[in-house]
Amino acid sequence: xxxITSLDTYQDLKKAGEGFICIxxxxxxxxxxxxxxxxxxxxxxxKKIIENSCKQGEYFYSLDYQKLHLTFNAIACRNCSKVKxxxxxxx
Length: 91
Ligand SMILES: [Zn+2]
Fold this sequence. Notes:
Layout (H helix, E strand, L loop, with lengths): L1 E3 L2 H10 L3 E6 L5 E4 L7 H10 L5 E6 L2 H7 L3 E2 L7 H7 L1
Parallel strand pairs: 3-5
Antiparallel strand pairs: 1-4, 2-3, 2-4
């Protein structure tokens, strides 16, 4: 698992198009998304990790959905529930 701390890292992962990102948010329930989810975007990421210096939220990446789910007690994003690996864990 890696913590995303730069926009470069984020862009590499997004380009690769594989795996999952958990948004750890202090004000909301932690959620796991596929990297291709529309909620995973540079605007939100920039706000959280650059402008707010990860104070309110952090981004973690893994190829393993289950790992993120268990580590952060995170739920699957509803928009991502059509992704096969996530769907299996929703049921
Ligand atoms: Zn999502």
